[in-house]
Amino acid sequence: MKNQEIAKIFYEIAEYLKMDEVAFRPYAYQKAALNLENLEQDVEEIYKKQGLKGLEKISGVGKHIALKIEEYLKKGKIKYYEKLKKKSPVNLGELTAVEGLGPKKIKTLYQKLGIRNVKDLEKAAKSHKIEQLFGFGEKTEKNILESIEFLKKDKGRFLLGEILPVVEEVYGELKNLKQVERIDVVGSLRRMKETIGDIDFLIASKNPQKVMDFFVSLRGIEKVWGKGITKASVRMRQGFDIDVRVVSKKNYGAALQYFTGSKEHNIAVRKIAISKRFKLNEYGLFKGKKMIAGRTEKEVYKALGMDWMPPEIRENQGEVEAALKGKLPNLIAFKDIKGDLHCHSDWDGGENSISEMAQKAMEMGYEYIGISDHTKFLIIERGLNEKELSEQRKEIDKLNEKFKKKNLKFRILHGAETNILKDGSIDIKDQALKKLDYVIAGIHSNFKMSKIEMTKRMIKAMKNPNIDIISHPTGRILKRREEYEIDFDKILRTAKEFKVILEINSSPYRLDLNDRNIRRCKDAGVKMVVSTDAHHKDQMKYIELGIAQARRGWAEKKDIANAYPLNKLLKDFK
DNA sequence: GCCGTTTTCGGCCCGACTGTTTTCAGTCG
Fold first, then answer.
1. CA-to-C1' distance for A254 and B8, Å?
2. What are the b/e assignments for A365-382, b being 16+ CB within 10 Å?
3. A143 in the same domain as A36
4. Which of A34-38, A264-268, A478-482 has the highest mean pLDDT?
5. Most CB within 10 Å of its CB: which of A22, A33, A494, A567?
6. Which pLDDT band, with edges at 50, 70 and 90, does A449 fall under?
7. Which nucleotides of chain B does any protein CB come within 7 A of?
8. Which residue is nearest to nucleotide B13 (CA to C1')?
9. Which of A345, A365, A346, A356 is nearest to A408 (CA)?
10. Domain range for residue A493?
């Protein structure tokens, strides 16, 4: 599927146009990119079946952009984009990721200092060439260096949500090969880590050579690092590597266990094997030369006196001990989720109407959806004021009335994602908050406060008797922005005392709370909610990412508020 | 460059914050 690739190019075109101070056109490209990104159908399929007319039906795509999509599908590149790139040959993806750098500053840096990428940027900053530029200064230079340091830490890792669609595609193609008896995603992807270094597949086959030949001929491969009889490694066009390993069926379970990891988990498990005078490797569990387990993962763990455990918790964080004692947690799963409580509608500039969002929620098998649009402080997101909230209520009541008449067991809850202002107050009056079914509060401004001030600010908001949920509690953006400074233990104590629920935000760019904080939350007895923060109905599918992090944090059904049926949930809300 | 219960032109989300340029451009959300 080329949707993401084309979207990425359109985003870059938008940035190039902004560099040249072109008005409005950048936003047209951005909008087209957003809609392509969230499109469920393959844009290539649409083009094959309906041609240019079909492309133009995509929201935000008109005649000219449709032609550019066609050009990419036919020739693999877009002339217009190549021309822009030639004019300013800078690595936009890299440079815009640096905090404080936008198209204008990037343009100046290129024109005055010839800076094309982060490497050039770092060199210039370290030799204090940047602070001398007009419009730049000492602080900007320092911030640039700090931001580069942060980006370096995450280098080479990709977001789980970015990679999953590619994985599904490759998985599907390999699975269809008749020589493939079994195939699994292994490694950190099977463990659903928030960022992924590379993609690993394990395959069972009697004819490894055939599988290898097929694998290295897949579409989208840029370079083959190595190809042997049972092992191959390639670089994909999108910049990450895929490794494939083929084993025979009788070793499959042991290999699955071995390649899933984590390394720390495997070391702990192997120590147990040694203590029982066994040897564990990727081919099986051995007593002397005799293989005593290896066909399935379960068999391997069982032979070691352990229960099988979900991949998400294999991080040597106590799961080995729990598995030995038969005390593994019963992890939350998608089937337990009854509704999504953080969804935006077109009232605040989201893509879909309340009714469309509700429809999607029903399709997902939910009992309820919570509409929680931004409130007035966030002007850019068309935040709602008190009056608009009460108008929105009327629309929601009407829709609920309709569902009742149709005997549908489904309900829309009226919430809001309010803003925690600098002093900890909420941007909506208490009177209006009381009328909502529930209230979310989140920090969307002033991220760089001292730890003490930030903790005070958050706690003040949590003590507001109308606040039920804190959204994206640590404020991080993966690979982009660090968490703000906050005393998380104090936050947990306050959450417990004032019965505030903390959100696990499922956006692929946030995943906030993260796995470790989820575990802390659970251990502190604080309730959580898994939400998507969807600004488009198709983003509701990201719930899987949030659930995966919840599982990594050992969360069970009882820990997750939106695993509760509606009546119990409403009782818990203030 | 897109879009249309003000439809083929004329709009298109805009205020706060930061750092630096002493009056505001650029970035962020």
1. 67
2. ebbbbbbbbbbbbbeebe
3. yes
4. A264-268
5. A33
6. confident
7. 1-3, 11-21, 25-29
8. A380
9. A365
10. 334-572
Name the one residue in this structure whose structure tokens are 């904080």. A517
SS3 A414: strand
Specify whether A204 is located in the same domain as A129.
Answer: no
Shortest-distance nucleotide from A378 CA to C1': B29
Distance CA A330, CA A503 (A): 20
Using an 8 Å Cβ cutoff, are A47 and A55 in contact?
A: yes
**Span A495-505, average pLDDT:** 97
- pLDDT the model gives residue A383: 87
pLDDT at A156: 66
Q: What is the CATH number of the domain that holds A241?
A: 3.30.460.10
Say which amino acid occupies A93: G
Residue with tokens 């804190």: A470
Task: With 0.70 as the threshold, say if the pTM is over it.
Answer: yes
C1' (B19) to CA (A30) span, angstroms = 28
Euclidean distance between CA atoms A367 and A353, whole angstroms: 18
Residue A38 — very low, low, confident or very high, per pLDDT cuts 50/70/90? confident
The enclosing H or E element of A373 equals strand A368-374
**Tokens of residue A356, six digits:** 């469309």
Nucleotide nearest to A26 (CA to C1'): B1
Number of domains, chain A:
3
**Helix A118-126 with A138-153: angle, nearest 10 deg:** 140
